[in-house]
TrEMBL record:
<feature type="transmembrane region" description="Helical">
    <location>
        <begin position="138"/>
        <end position="162"/>
    </location>
</feature>
<keyword id="KW-0812">Transmembrane</keyword>
<dbReference type="InterPro" id="IPR003339">
    <property type="entry name" value="ABC/ECF_trnsptr_transmembrane"/>
</dbReference>
<keyword id="KW-1133">Transmembrane helix</keyword>
<dbReference type="InterPro" id="IPR012809">
    <property type="entry name" value="ECF_CbiQ"/>
</dbReference>
<keyword id="KW-1003">Cell membrane</keyword>
<keyword id="KW-0472">Membrane</keyword>
<feature type="transmembrane region" description="Helical">
    <location>
        <begin position="58"/>
        <end position="85"/>
    </location>
</feature>
<dbReference type="GO" id="GO:0043190">
    <property type="term" value="C:ATP-binding cassette (ABC) transporter complex"/>
</dbReference>
<dbReference type="GO" id="GO:0006824">
    <property type="term" value="P:cobalt ion transport"/>
</dbReference>
<feature type="transmembrane region" description="Helical">
    <location>
        <begin position="267"/>
        <end position="285"/>
    </location>
</feature>
<feature type="transmembrane region" description="Helical">
    <location>
        <begin position="174"/>
        <end position="196"/>
    </location>
</feature>
<feature type="transmembrane region" description="Helical">
    <location>
        <begin position="97"/>
        <end position="118"/>
    </location>
</feature>
<dbReference type="Pfam" id="PF02361">
    <property type="entry name" value="CbiQ"/>
</dbReference>
<protein>
    <submittedName>
        <fullName>Cobalt ECF transporter T component CbiQ</fullName>
    </submittedName>
</protein>
<dbReference type="InterPro" id="IPR051611">
    <property type="entry name" value="ECF_transporter_component"/>
</dbReference>
Length: 287
């Protein structure tokens, strides 16, 4: 007896357990994969983490101050080129900036197209008694906002992808970021990774013990029970981790084996970066 096309399509669809396992596994793989980029022998990977953190913080400040559209576009394109020059796949940079920024930031900036005054470019409507007018200043404001966010997100992505997490946290401490913030950030990063692995094992155990299809109500009940189990296990794990750290002499100060040393190339990178950012800011002020 041949199965109907409808039944074949139902069997082809993945259950929520399979989709969750796939999503959690992809998140773990992405985390580990991003760390491999930081271990490559690229341009930014060789730069001292202190130099990158300081220069990128200055670049974020300049990006927030510059209003000239061509300058922002040039800064963003330069960052994309820097990412490609440092052996980062263009697809990785595009996923982190070009896809997320228009989707989320564009939704936030969309109302500004109809609220900012200026010379009218075109009119939408009337829809009932409402007529929406898009002005040139509105388009300019939205484009500036999108470019500014795109450049900022690209800066953050380049810093995270080309710097090992432990080195990044140590560089933050050198810049006098509060120790509590650095410790919480470092523990959260590792704990989220561990929690993802725990979630994946939980769903794998469910999938390996399930024969056939289950009803939607049963799946929802299992998800509710699993959320409580996962919460209880995560709280117990956090207490166990802290107790283990205290037993091994933890006193609030995290130490790493990495030793930072500024080379001539690092000083040259910082000098050129500061000069270019200062020039961009002066050009923006003159316009």
């Amino acid at each position: 007896m041949t199965a109907s096309p409808t039944s074949r399509r139902r069997r082809a669809r993945k259950s929520f357990v399979e989709r969750t396992i796939t999503g959690v596994g992809a998140a773990i793989e992405q985390t580990v994969y991003a760390e491999t980029y930081a271990r490559q022998d690229g341009f930014l990977q060789r730069v001292d983490p202190r130099a990158k953190v300081g220069l990128f913080a200055l670049a974020l400040l300049v990006t927030g101050l510059v209003h000239d559209l061509p300058l922002l576009a040039g800064l963003w394109l330069g960052l994309l080129g820097l990412g490609i020059a440092t052996r980062l796949p263009f697809r990785v940079i595009a996923v982190r900036t070009m896809l997320g920024v228009p989707l989320f930031t564009g939704l936030v900036a969309l109302p500004a197209l109809f609220l900012v005054d200026g010379r009218s470019l075109f009119t939408i409507g009337p829809v009932g008694s409402i007529t929406l007018t898009v002005s040139d200043q509105a388009v300019l404001s939205v484009a500036t906002f999108l470019l500014r966010v795109s450049a900022s997100v690209t800066l953050a992505a380049l810093l995270v992808l080309t710097t090992r997490w432990a080195d990044l946290l140590k560089a933050l401490r050198i810049f006098r970021v509060p120790d509590v913030f650095v410790i919480v950030l470092g523990m959260t990063y590792r704990y989220v990774f561990l929690l993802l692995r725990l979630t994946e094992n939980l769903f794998l155990g469910r999938a390996s013990r399930t024969v056939g299809r289950t009803s939607s109500g049963e799946q929802r009940r299992w998800v509710g029970a699993s959320m409580g189990t996962l919460m209880s296990r995560s709280l117990k794990m956090s207490n166990d981790v802290y107790a283990a750290m205290v037993a091994r002499g933890f006193s609030g100060d995290v130490r790493t084996l990495a030793t930072f040393r500024m080379r001539d190339e690092d000083w040259l990178f910082v000098s050129l970066g500061v000069a270019l950012l200062g020039l961009a800011w002066l050009v923006d002020l003159s316009r």
